[in-house]
Amino acid sequence: MNPIDEKIMVETRRQLLARGARGLGSLALYSLLQQNATAATEKKAVGGLPGLPQFPAKAKRAIYLHMLGAPPQMETFDYKPGMEKWFDKDLPDSIRQGQRLTAMTSGQARFPVAPSIFKFAQHGESGMWVSELLPYTAKMADDIAVVRSMNTDAINHDPAVTFMQTGFMIAGKPCVGSWISYGLGSMNQDLPTFVVLNASHSNPKANVQAISARLWSSGFLPGQYSGVALRSGGDPVLYISNPDGVSSEIRRNMLDATDEMNRIEMARLADPEIQVRIAQYEMAFRMQSSVPELTDISKEPESTFKLYGEDARKPGTFANCCLMARRLAERDVRFVQVYHRGWDVHSMLPEVLPSQCKDIDQGAYGLVQDLKSKGLLDDTLVVWGGEFGRTVYCQGKLTATDYGRDHHPKCFSIWMAGAGIKGGTVHGETDEFSYNIVKDPVHIRDLNATILNRFGIEDTRFTFKYQGLDQKLTGTEKRAVVVKDILV
Amino acid sequence: MADLRLDVREGAFAQRKNGQPVVPGKPDESLLIKRIYSDDPAFRMPPTFSHRTLTQEQKDTLRLWVEQGAKWTQHWAFVAPQKAALPEVKDAAWARNEIDRFILAKLEANNLTPAPEADRRTLIRRVTLDLTGLPPTPAETDAFLNDRSSDAYEKVVDRLLASPHYGEHRARYWLDAARYADTNGLHFDNYREMWPYRDWVINAFNKNMPFDRFTVDQLAGDLVPNSTIDQKVASGFQRCNVSTDEGGVILPEVEAMYAKDRADTTGTVWMGLTVGCATCHDHKFDPIAQKEYYALTSFFRNTTQPTMDLNIENTPPAVHVPLPADRAKWDALNAQRKALREKLADARKQSLESIKQWLPKADPQAASYAPGNQVFALRVSDDLRAVGRQGAQPVSRPEQVELIEAPDIDAKALRFKKEGSLDLPAVSEFDPDKPFTIAMWFYMPNSKEDGPIASQWENLPKEKDGESLHRGWLIRMDKGNLGIYDHRPSVYLSGADGKGISAWPAPEYKFKPETWYHLAVTYDGSGDRRGIGMYVNGAPIVSVGRPEDDPRLTASMKSTAPIRLGSDGSKHFEGGGVADFRMLTGIVDPEEAELLFLSTRFNAAAGKTVDQLSAVDAEAIGTFYTYRVNPATAATVNQLRAAEKDLYAIRRRSPSTLVMQERTDAEPVAHVLYRGQYDQMRDEVHPNTLSALPPMTHAMPRNRLGLAMWIVDASNPLTARVTVNRFWQEIFGTGIVRTAEDFGSQGEPPSHPELLDWLAVDFRDSGWDVKRTFKMMVMSATYRQSAATTPEKIAADPLNRLLAHGPRFRMDGEMVRDYALFASGLLRPDIGGPSVKPYQPSHIWDTVAMEQSNTRIYQPDSGADLYRRSVYTFWKRAAPPPSMDIFNAPSRETCTVRRERTDTPLQALVTMNDPQFVEAARVLAQNAMKSNKGLDGEMSFMAERVLARPLDPNESKVLKLSYDKFVAYYKSSTEDASKLLKVGESPTDTHLPAPNFAALTMVANEMLNLDEALDK
Q1: How would you write B874-917 as a 3-class SS string?
Q2: A286 to chain B: nearest residue by CA?
Q3: What angle do CA B102, B105, B106 make, to 5 degrees?
Q4: How far apart are CA B107 and CA B809, in angstroms?
Q5: CA distances from A77 to A123, A132, A145, A149, B727 (A)
Q6: Mean pLDDT throughout B679-694?
Q7: Whole-number average pLDDT of chain A
């Protein structure tokens, strides 16, 4: 063997030991459980990488509200007052510039402009333009920073949301929640570090995209950094409830015996993995009480439901997920990912979009305000957005009251709040058609770099060796740039 | 130093304008050495921005290497393996076979000693789990304990290798690699019928199919000369990839994705290489150029498969796989059909004279081909006649319908002008339970609009999603879908409830405008989409249809609407034409369909002499005469008809499975895609393998078959190594190369290189005998060691890579579940068949699925199907079975050859609370109590099944203590006891005392959750 191979071999061995494939990682967990049993007051992250955060973090946690299907920017945050006069006129070629289209409209004979039929007004001290479809969001204009110049490389949902979450269009890479859990570890030993909530949508006519666990997968990172889906129906965490006829006392008795039996085995085989197993069973038992306590909202005061809306009482609604997200944040769960589906407005936009906006508007507002009043907004980052934007031209038949919009990767709008995000800011600008970005483009990788930055991490210095490459959330294509303008 | 590559010899030693990176023996002249030692940050390597530095030790190592001559050897995995001499060991008596010599030598070199042999109970449990995935029965354990013969263990091993469960267990690992699943994977993620492939894998392992054949059949079974149905099924390996039918996708992008997945999977499974790293650029670490990667993808780019999966379960190409019970008959019938057809062909050759006599006398009108079961026909000559059961009636022709000559088809035909259509008297014999056939010639106009060819299509007074519903039948040119599907004829059958079925030609069939086509549509009365058949120009074609919500045709489709040619009552077939329209009861078979296609030719030829006919027409007349007229062949024709009928019946009750099929009109080709982007096509590349490996020979065709031959060629250094390594991983938990998926330079080097090579050569030279290799592994002293370890061993070798003790690790989710089912007596041991749906928490599917998906609602099975082995559990890729997922099962979206093995609280929740495990505990307790042995006996009964051993006194004490607590509780809360005893569908014995039964159930739950029960 040549010395280079030898070196790589030694290196790999060393990494293996450091990462502790099975043994050491879980041993660390075991020690943390011990520690937790004794010193419950000290909230210190466990797990995580040495040296992280690399600089003082603004965020300890994040709540990421993803509108799956892609909300149209021109009906939400990207106000284009001049469009009415373009109604049913062809989008100029100088704007479209041969931009590639999805197969759904590439066969279309013409591309007539469909102006938003929804009105905009200015809000807050900042005077931010917000659509009438989002009255609650408008009320918190001064708490949020809107980026109107987001752009992505993907043009269809599956690769686009994968790209947004992982920095790559092809599945198999870790999502942002997994990266952060891996890097920073857990601040709560009774709940998962990274929780996913799938909110329901109310309009049966909404065009819904599929979702799958690969979106909250840890990819090549160890499996424990995958998101755990908190469910609104049945057990909130799969299999968390004891079977019928098994009380908590019976479960405790059962575990006492199992632990004891495992210790007998340990004495025989001396395998440290047995200790890990004992610890995991104990953590499972603790989760059996901490999870129901988390999801029990019966003790929430009336004011909560005034703030988030009555919908928050109904399990699985977006408002309810926002309330859950706040409860998770209070319990120092590191990363909460919320998905709301039904935003894929290829047709019937005027009918579907208002109900989609209504589904999420008050809940998102309630969440930000609630975090603020509880002092959590300072170190909790909230992100709202979809996976791409939508075309200004109509897909299908355009009438005065009906239209649809196709996918558009070249520009879209998101907002962020908390964790040192400068409220009332509007960043970036698109052309008069909301088709091309004319100022301050923000790519997905820039957004992800900004999220990491809030956690005190520089994207280029947060890597994981996989298939011989230093993999990172912000991809390999170009250097990501933190969006400094929206930071305090 | 832009474009400098230090991973290839040429890069390191080439003269560059500012020097030579590596000058052997002369570190001070080597640019590489100069730059890594440099104090100048601008000159120093690695550069500052990379945030990487070399340690002094690393630098010195490199310097030393250059000083000593910079010896450059090829990466170990690319050098052909050789059997090294067995290493000398001190304790030669310990070694039972060759494996042990290699293992022991390394242990001795590390001052470690092997653990003693495991006791017989541990051993039989371990080997039974490793070879069958199931624990031993108490009887099997006892038999082994009592067998004092010297080959007692070997007898156990041989028995297990012969068990049909062996194949199931081996297949389970392989199916991860094959990314086998029961749904298409993306978007709708609809049902995919693929399980015959899964059963093929199980059978192949059980039959101990040599691994080279196993490989060739899966990569190119369809291309093997005279390939059998089984070989075609096997080729489904490369159809197991995820597919999509999402409306907006861009076809070349998806095509690139499929080819990439297939190349990557092949690379991982057989070469142990991350070839996919070269998607965007030359591989950074292994000698795989981007161009070579795309050449590899080209092998998979010449398939007839449509890019869109059509959301159906049998996306073409697919084959029907007769059920085992039908196999013999199917083969016999096919042989019979072949013989009968040959006989008829011979008869035709001999009938030329009689044709010459007969033809001039044949009357074109009277002899017009009319099958006995014809219920309606439109006869077009100078006037129109509707020929029904009551005889012929004249039909008046509206002005918008032209009467034309269609020389292409030798007939007079109708042509529809704007708004033109022809109404004919209604035929009300067709209904969902009655087979029928509708046939016609149609002329395809140059139009992109829907064009109704013929219909009896009545509006119903109800709507769905704003569209009105219909009853009746409709045959229409469909304009295609979103520019993705081409114009093609489609058939719709709909009942009075508005529910119906549909079919249209698979996308591979192209229809040219301004052309006449003969179409025969058959429906077999099953109410099922698959009961619709289509023949175009007399030949059967593969048709597909709407999959949503399992539509079935059940309500009556009898309609009062007239038969309309050229219209469905609202739209019109402008510019289109129709000729020789017929309706028949019963379904036509392929011969009859061909005769329908030929009938206009015959009509035109009748009355002429043979020498007046064109060659094509003469051919047609020969067929017609033989099948229809010649009395000498009538009996043979009837036999053929009977065989066709039986074949159809077998085909309809057979499952289908996706297969590979090579295009015959094109050669495999691909393009280098700049940065992996589908729309950035660069150089054209042709099928080829990697240049770092031995080249393809002339005997290997440049297609998948050639690729497969190359993979199993004796000169290939990777295939055997990669395969035995995976086998080793299955048995020992970790491969000799830990990174089973990556034998490249970034993978981990082998822990025992000589052993790996020895096993690889041995495997290959044994004729790729899989069972033999497994037997060798489990017969070794290495394998038979006790799993007990010591602090010294843990310190020296924490991951047990040197195997100073026996393998012991947490079982995969499937094994954990099968184990509980088996121990309790619930497991149903049947092999093969459609996938089953055991218990699953509610809303696993519908929270992620699209509304339109036909795998949106999980409807669990009941009865026996709840208790099948987990290899048969239905696998929806977007939401895999959660109890498997939690135990690190992959989603089966991409190839996985090494599962992660974590230990998490979520797993504890599964085995404690999943009804499957609670029910298993209850049934185990019930069986224990029925054994009438008292508490000690009951506990022992359970322990023998869960742990394959009796309890020691300490353990009995612990378990009894908990039992007493449980009994006390359940005596005070009988309600809880009865609730617990109701978990699961299997019957509970109500005669047993509930508190004790419930308490023993909890003890069983304890046992099934022991570390010992979860580890093999």
Answers
A1: CCCCCCCCHHHHCCCCCCCCCCCCCCCCCCCHHHHHHHHHCHHH
A2: B905
A3: 90
A4: 21
A5: 12, 10, 11, 11, 57
A6: 93
A7: 88
SS3 at position B575: coil
**B325-334 mean pLDDT:** 95
Q: Please indicate if any CB of chain B lies within 8 Å of the CB of A483.
A: no
Q: What is the pTM of this model?
A: 0.86
A139 touches chain B (CB under 8 A): no
- The pLDDT confidence band at residue A4, using thresholds 50, 70 and 90, is very low
Token pair, residue A320, equals 């309810």
Closest CB to B61 among A7, A250, A269: A7
Q: For chain B, what percent of residues have pLDDT higher than 90?
A: 73
Read off the DSSP letter of residue B628: I
The pLDDT confidence band at residue B447, using thresholds 50, 70 and 90, is confident
For the stretch B143-151, contacts whose Cβ atoms lie closer than 8 Å and that sit 24 or more positions apart, written own/partner, are: B144/B120, B145/B120, B145/B121
Put simply, the answer to whether B51 touches A460 (Cβ < 8 Å) is yes
| Residue B741, CA distances (Å) to B235, B265, B275, B430 in order | 22, 10, 10, 57
B885 to chain A, any CB pair closer than 8 A? The answer is yes
Q: What is the pLDDT of residue B52?
A: 75
Residue A204: Cβ-neighbour burial (10 angstroms; 0-12, 13-18, 19+): exposed
Predicted confidence band at B391 (pLDDT cuts at 50, 70, 90)?
Answer: confident
pLDDT at A11 over 50: no
Is B1006's CB within 8 Å of A244's CB?
no
Instruction: Measure CB to CB from residue B808 to each of A158, A171, A271 and give the nearest one.
Output: A271
Lowest mean pLDDT among A35-49, B40-54, B151-165, B275-289: A35-49
Rounded Cα distance, A32 and A19, in Å: 16
* Distance of alpha carbon B799 from alpha carbon A23, whole angstroms: 7
Tokens of B694: 């031995």
For A118, residues 6+ apart whose C-beta sits below 8 A from its C-beta are A75, A131, A132, A133, A353, A354
Three-class SS of residue B35? helix
Residue B3 forms contact with A (CB below 8 Å): no
Name the residue type at position A175. Answer: C
How many other C-beta atoms are found inside a 10 Å radius of the C-beta of residue B862? Answer: 11
- Tokens 């104990």 identify what position? A282
Strands of B652-792, DSSP E: 656-658, 670-673, 681-685
Length, in residues, of chain B: 1016
Q: Pick from B882, B979, B1015: which is nearest to A245 by CB?
A: B979
Among chain A residues, the shortest Cα distance to B187 is held by: A210
Categorise residue B542: left if φ over 0, alpha if ψ from -120 to 50, beta otherwise.
beta
Of B976, B1010, B1015, the CB nearest to A261: B1010
DSSP state of B988: P
**Contact, B490 vs B478, CB < 8 A?**
yes
Chain A stretch 229-288, residues whose beta carbon is closer than 8 A to a beta carbon of chain B: 231, 233-235, 237-247, 249-251, 253-254, 256-258, 260-262, 264-265, 268-274, 276-278, 280-281, 283-284, 287-288
